[in-house]
Batch of 2 targets.
Target 1
Amino acid sequence: MRAVTSAQNDALRSGHQPEPGSPAAAVRGWLAALLAAFALYAAAVALLSSSVVQRPWAVIAAPSYAAAALAAVAWKRRGTDLALLISVCGGLLAPLGWLAGHGMTEREVNVIAFGAWRLLHHGTPYRSVATLAATNDPDRFDPYLPAMHVLAAARGIWGNHLLTDPRFYFTAAFAVVFWLALRVTRTPSAGRWTALVIATPVVAFPLAVGGDDVPVLALMCLGLALLARPGRAPSPVLAGLVLGIAAAMKATAWPALVIVAVLLAARDGRRATGQFAAAALATAAVLIGPVAAVSAASLNENTILFPLGLTHIKSGATSPLPGFLLASAGHTGHLIATGLLALGGLAVALSLVIRPPRTIAAATWRLIIGLVVMFTLAPSTRFGYYIYPLGLWVWLRVSQRDQGAPVPGRSRARRAADWLLLTGNTHGDRRIPLCG
């Protein structure tokens, strides 16, 4: 309590505390500005997007974010919580319910749902190589690994209904797993931080219209968190289990396996590294192995060759990033893009050998860099994939811990002051570090 009081006094002396009599004024201003920015983004999507799926989200979300900003300013004591409630409901739950009720979704949700049906009825989510060779429809390819289809199992079992929409299960998985990632690192008010992250357009927008990447991101955060565990020993087995599940959902999680293994080798030794590797590989093998046994060729065709652009039909991931632009120039351009992607991966790998990460923060940053390189140079890519590096950065800043230590550059007094600004709490009963 003395440390908290001292931090509060430091905050008062440094000018971070609002005027006496209005302790939440600066908080309301900060949160209102953030929510107003969300409203402007949603309004821009509503005006500029031609997507019949994205525009309904924006039309509902924009006024909701604006109302949340007003609530943050207007209600002195509970404005923060009310603003979070309005922004989660209006930015995610309401548009998701409307879109699901009208059967409107991005294409990947239907691909995953059909894969779940095939997995339940045929033992594999993938069409055969012969069937794929005869089609010109990219949606007949399924680039998702078997564990992803578990989240769409409700649709495969009970059919096409409102509550069987996979996006509800993507949302629930992210909320629970990201909350656990904050709880494991002992982040105070993990529920409130989870609500704020879910409310941001970075998460709410993709969840409402598609959202398959979001639960994979949450699992990556939890896997890293289990290796931090401030005040307790890290858990390489649990981390391996969690990251093994992520790796069995989508290949975007594979770089995390390599970087975490290097971290453990440098920080905790061979035993911890072996435990992690065994748990991760065993988990992935259990989840992928049965499908590989049924249809190894179609698994390879759908989840490896198709995303790399090596099939006769190209992926629908076509954002104008360098890798895609090069690959669009023809066979030579595709070779150049693939070569640059390999060189980028090699550069990250060499950095792991030359200077292996020894902290969670360093490992997370190395993962962020590797993912940015991969998404920028991949022949089939889209802007939405950047949710991974951005989400990892948000988790690192919110958790503010690395093996029990705060992220460098944040003094205890400043973190306490930031929480005072976020909640208007001048009594030291609860506090949480503010990301930034």
Target 2
Amino acid sequence: MLFRQVTQPKSDYVVIPAHTSETRAYIPFGLLSRSQIVGNSCFSLPNAKLFHFGVLMSSMHMAWVRYTCGRLESRYRYSKDIVYNNFPWPQPTDAQKKAIESAAQGVLDARANHPKSTLADLYDPVAMPPDLRKAHQKLDKTVALAYRKLPFATEAEQVAYLFDLYCRLPPLEVAERKRQ
């Protein structure tokens, strides 16, 4: 008898750490190829594209995380069932989707500018490199525009907007998302 947990996707994927520091402005998700092995301390989002990575790396998603995520001590404990499956994704136009992909690539490019740094180094709240912070700010604005044209003044406003979207999701869509 063998105990097995098969989590390796057969496609490129977004890797999501199950636990991360609550002091980070962004959870350091990764966009990995199927040849890179996902560890047991992470979730994988198979068939993910640059668009998915971009939305997940945005302040909109982080606002949702801060209000829905479980905790391990005070650290975030990401959950596919509570956080990811219930997250109300934007419904962007093709132009908005391309803009999100471009801004997400900007985040990856900024990370690549620091090849000796780990993700923990890059997402240190005090020492985050300025080019990475600037790339995230651009991504944040781009993703927010996919939700609505009017800028969000506060994180509380973002969360209220996301919960309103969540409440308007059709019940069948919510049930279907939970099965995935």
